[in-house]
Amino acid sequence: MPLIDVGGVRLNYEERGSGPAVLFLSGTGARGRTWHLHQVPALVQAGYRVVTFDTRGIAPSDTPPVVTMPDLIADAAGLIERLGLGPCRVAGSSMGARVAAELCLQRPDLVDRVVLMATFGRPGAFLDAMTAGERALRESGTKLPAEYLGVVRAALNLSPRTLADDRAARDWLDVFELPLAGETDGAASRLDADADADRLMAYAQISVPCLVLGFADDLIAPARGNRDVAAAVPGARYAEIPDAGHYGYLEQPSLVNTELIAFLSEGQS
């Protein structure tokens, strides 16, 4: 994946295919290549030019001490401009969806339509508590065993249906025991991206076509919160994926890709 300078920050990106452009925005700690497991091949086959990237804070992209929401928005906008993608289709999950929504508000000229997955307009009590707990753990300097972290990550991000399947659970636990991006060198950027901000009222100003995808078993961004976002965005469509947790686009890729491609392709001749 090549590095590109965007406003003085180097971002590690990759593009595949040709046709109308789609930019994917990843959630906290997730690499751009996460989308290459299922979504990128499906969209390339459907005739799209797909761009993914490692956000600021995840090496080999630049890793400053602190990464803010304005940083993430500027990086997405700058990448669209540098690569000549705009106005393009944008899809994001979790924090990536929050960035995508803010991009629609600040730079609607760059966005043709947007897909918001596993998102929220305001954080719920559980997400607030989880964020505070993770902050306290980080500040304490305590290092939890990889085996325990794997179990916690699986429980938080996957559907109970997935975890009830022993073979699938073992495969996922192997993945979740691996360090998150930036953990191995001890110098990961600190994300200060306004996850606690209430943006529901602001979303009423989003003017581009919008699809909100909620995952029925999501603990981090519950389906209820996704429905609230869809209700706040004028004309937005809502779809809910069953048997899927926070990583629903990886757990139920066929269902997600069907919704994604149908929405992105609307109006194409």
TrEMBL record:
UniProt keyword Ligase, yes or no: no
InterPro entries named among the record's database cross-references: AB_hydrolase, AB_hydrolase_1, AB_hydrolase_fold, Epox_hydrolase-like
Keywords assigned by UniProt, alphabetized: Hydrolase, Oxidoreductase, Peroxidase
Name of the featured protein: Hydrolase
Pfam family, any one: Abhydrolase_1
Domain of life of the organism encoding this protein: Bacteria
Provenance organism: Actinoplanes cyaneus
Molecular-function GO term, any one: peroxidase activity
Boundaries of every AB hydrolase-1 domain copy: 20-253
